[in-house]
Design brief:
It is built from 19 helices and 9 strands. The chain is α+β, with helices and mostly antiparallel strands and 442 residues long.
Length: 442
């Protein structure tokens, strides 16, 4: 396969079929009895415009639009949905916030809400209602969207889990019966895969989603961008140990990963150039629904695993978080909140999770019971992505600084420079320290 278009490959997703098969799953979930029903009275003549990131599994947007039409049928409110790439939503959201004009609701990534908190509508009443009814928001969601512990800047939508995607046959051929659960075994596996001519590869470019593995690399060895007081501490012995480990790991990679963005590892994996990478579940569904026989036969050989635990002894996962923000300039705040309430209720949200085929992990604990996580055991590793996730600004308080530093790819750039040998690890750390201090000004 000489040309590959990630989105085109996923257009055949069977996500909607899965949603139809699974139904709403209402039989396995009963809302909390103490959660009183809440409803917002939409303004007369309300119309809504939603800007959201483009789907990578076709079933996601199909199921989402089914729910949008249900909302319009129920309320009479016209809803326009515009889809843009991850990289395009962020600047468009910033422009809208600064100019006071644009979409009423924006679905964006990571801690974008912390770039312009004063421009966002307070949705505390809605967030607290949903939390009471659906088992509570996971800690990382609250850290992203309720950084002061009081006002909710938006609602969590979920996260695209950045899990390990691997070829079972190649891992076995390299001498491993199961995917390693610790960093020592992880490195040993990659060395063995490289020796077999079936290397791995991980994005080291400014990839919004796939470069998040560099956070795992740093955190797994005890490094972090800032401490709990928001003091920049990335230049540390712990980070140095992570980078030295990363140098050994990088030596096993397929060439070219320094320029990889989000689509590149998908192409390399489905072209059988690599045997292991990190990604959402979209690679699996691309193989499952491909019309190319050589790609489709990969489906049975693909499996998923969580990132291994490093010397710190606990999971240090980093995933692409999705938020839902209502802009304060909207003429229809009540309609916007009613739309988000409707979309997050079980009868809509559970079929949407199923439609997305496991690509999105839920932000509320009750949705762990969704049938999508057990209908196929290859889905299950993605279920707890938000539950186990650390926010990108770990271990500090999220805000303008964390959002800016994350958007500037400081950690990803440091890792790329150090492990590739373009800069000595110490120099790469020092540069990252100075870059981060520009955001975290004392």
């Amino acid at each position: 396969m000489t040309e590959f278009n990630r989105r085109k490959f996923l257009e055949g997703s069977a996500g909607v079929a899965a949603a139809a098969t699974l139904g709403t799953g209402a039989a396995v979930f009963a809302p909390a009895v103490h959660a009183q029903t809440i409803a917002f009275k939409p303004e007369k003549g309300a119309k809504l415009r939603v800007l959201r990131w483009s789907r990578f599994v076709q079933g996601d947007i199909d199921a989402y639009m089914v729910n949008v039409r249900k909302f319009t049928d129920k309320t009479g409110i016209e809803v326009r949905v515009d889809n843009e790439g991850w990289e395009d939503v962020r600047p468009k959201a910033a422009v809208a916030a600064n100019t006071g004009a644009g979409p009423d609701i924006i679905l964006s990534t990571n801690d974008d809400a912390n770039l312009y908190p004063e421009k966002l509508l307070d949705v505390t009443d809605l967030a607290e209602y949903l939390g009471r009814k659906y088992g509570g928001w996971y800690p990382a969601v609250q850290q992203y969207l309720r950084p002061d512990g009081k006002r909710w800047l938006g609602l969590g939508l979920g996260a695209a889990g950045s899990m390990i995607v691997y070829r079972q046959s190649m891992v076995k051929a390299a001498g491993f019966d199961a995917f390693p659960k610790d960093t020592a075994g992880f490195l040993a596996l990659h060395k063995a895969l490289h020796a077999k001519g079936t290397p791995g590869g991980y994005a080291l470019g400014n990839a919004t989603g796939d470069s998040l593995w560099t956070n795992w690399l740093m955190w797994s060895h005890g490094g972090k961008l800032v401490d709990q007081n928001n003091k920049v501490v990335i230049d540390s012995p712990e980070t140095l140990r992570a980078l030295e480990y990363g140098k050994e790991l990088y030596a096993t990679f397929i060439p070219g990963t320094l320029s990889w963005l989000d689509p590149n590892n998908n192409k390399a994996f489905l072209d059988s150039q690599i045997s292991v990478t990190n990604n959402g579940i979209s690679i699996y569904y691309a193989a499952k629904n491909s019309t190319d026989p050589k790609v489709k036969e990969l489906q049975a050989d693909i499996n998923h695993a969580q990132f291994p635990v490093g010397p710190v002894g606990t999971p240090t996962e980093s995933h692409l978080f999705f938020n839902q923000m209502v802009m304060k300039y909207t003429k229809y705040p009540q309609a916007a909140k009613e739309f988000l309430r409707f979309m997050m209720e079980w009868d809509q949200f559970d079929p949407w999770l199923s439609g997305a085929g496991g690509y999105i992990a839920q932000p509320l604990a009750a949705y762990e019971k969704s049938a999508i996580w057990t209908v196929d055991p290859k889905h299950t590793p993605y279920r707890d992505s938000v539950k186990n996730m650390r926010p990108t600004g770990y271990a500090g308080k999220l805000g303008y600084a964390s959002a800016g530093a994350g958007a500037d790819f400081i950690v990803a750039n440091m890792v790329a420079e150090a492990i590739s040998g373009s800069k000595p690890p110490k120099e790469a750390m020092e540069r990252a320290q100075k870059r981060a201090e520009r955001y975290y000004k004392v």
